[in-house]
Design brief:
Radius of gyration: 18 Å
Helix content: 25-40%
CATH class of the largest domain: Alpha Beta
Low-confidence stretches: none
Order of helices and strands: EHEHEEEHEEHEHEHEEHEHEHEH
CATH topology of the largest domain: Rossmann fold
Strand content: 15-25%
Distance between the termini: 7 Å
Largest sheet: 8 strands, mixed
Number of strands: 14
Number of helices: 10
Number of domains: 2
C-alpha cells in the first residue's frame, strides 16, 4: 500500500496554461481520503505551491525550490537550506550574461535586478509576480538569503552554462534542467530526492510505501528514492528510462497505484 505520493507540478500536474485536469484533482482527493500523504515537489517557492494546493483542496506537504525548503501540511517549515554568502555571489556573477535571464530566489520572493521584456516573458510562467529589486546584488552581499537561482535562455547556452557550473563548483552546487528552457541551481546536496527522503523519515514511511511522478531532469533524484516512479509520457528519453513506470496523467498513475 502506498502511503506517500509525491507529484511534480509543472508539466506533470499543471500544464503550460496553469491548468490542472479534473481527473487529476479527483484522483488526488481519492488518494487523500484513502490515507495517502500527498506531497507537491517543485522548483517553485511555497507561495506559488499554495496556489496549487488550494486548487486541489487537500492538505499537502511541499518540497519547495527543488528541495531547499520542506513545508508541513499546516505551513510550518520543516527544513530550510540556503546558499553560503560567498557561493551565492559567485554563482550570480557567473550566471549573469546579458543573453540569459537569471532569477534570484529567496524564501520571500523571486527577484530580478531589472524588469525587461525578457524578464516579463519569463515571469508569466510564475504563479506569483517576479519582483524587481535593483539593489538585489548589494542585498545579497549584505546577507540576503538565497535558496535557488533559476536561469532561462536558449538551450545550447544553458547546456554550456551547466558545464561551466560543474567545472567551477563541482559538488558545491546541484544544477539541472527544470524547464525546457530553464535550469535551476541549488546548494550542493539539495534536490528533490534528498527532501523526499527527509519527509519519509519524518512520516515514518518506508521506501516501498512511496511513489512519485515527474517529467524533467530535476525529478530524477526523487525517482531514485521512491520505490515506484512514474515519468510523464512526454518526458525526455533519459527521464523515461530512469523511472520504473510511465503515465499520461497523474490520475492514471494514481489509478494504477490505488488498484494494487
Amino acid at each position: 500500500m502506498i502511503k506517500l505520493f509525491v507529484s511534480d507540478i509543472d508539466g506533470t500536474l499543471m500544464d503550460r496554461n496553469k491548468l490542472i485536469r479534473k481527473e487529476d484533482i479527483d484522483a488526488i482527493r481519492l488518494a487523500h481520503r484513502q490515507g495517502v500523504h500527498i506531497c507537491l515537489a517543485s522548483g517553485r517557492m511555497y507561495e506559488e505551491i499554495k496556489v496549487v494546493m488550494e486548487l486541489l483542496g487537500v492538505p499537502c506537504y511541499a518540497v519547495c525550490q527543488n528541495g531547499a525548503t520542506i513545508v508541513d501540511q499546516d505551513g510550518t517549515v520543516i527544513r530550510a537550506s540556503k546558499f553560503q554568502l560567498d557561493l551565492a555571489l559567485e554563482v550570480q556573477q557567473l550566471t549573469a550574461p546579458a543573453d540569459l535571464v537569471t532569477v534570484i530566489c529567496g524564501s520571500e520572493g523571486n527577484y530580478v535586478a531589472e524588469q525587461t521584456a525578457e524578464t516579463e516573458r519569463v515571469g508569466t510562467r510564475f504563479l506569483t509576480p517576479l519582483i524587481e529589486r535593483r539593489q538585489v546584488i548589494e542585498d545579497m552581499a549584505n546577507g540576503m538569503p538565497v535558496t535557488k537561482f533559476s536561469i532561462y535562455g536558449e538551450v545550447p547556452l544553458l547546456e554550456q552554462m551547466l558545464e561551466i557550473l560543474d567545472q567551477r563548483f563541482a559538488d558545491r552546487i546541484t544544477a539541472s534542467f527544470s524547464d525546457p528552457d530553464g535550469i535551476d541551481v541549488m546548494p550542493g546536496g539539495i534536490d528533490k530526492g534528498a527532501a523526499v527522503e527527509a519527509l519519509m523519515q519524518l512520516l515514518d514511511v518506508r521506501r516501498e510505501e512511496t511513489a512519485c511522478i515527474g517529467d524533467s531532469f530535476n525529478d530524477l533524484a526523487m525517482f531514485r528514492i521512491c520505490s515506484r516512479s512514474f515519468a510523464m509520457s512526454h518526458a525526455h528519453g533519459t527521464v523515461l528510462t530512469t523511472a520504473t513506470h510511465r503515465a499520461d496523467t497523474v490520475g492514471q498513475a494514481l489509478d494504477d497505484l490505488l488498484a494494487v
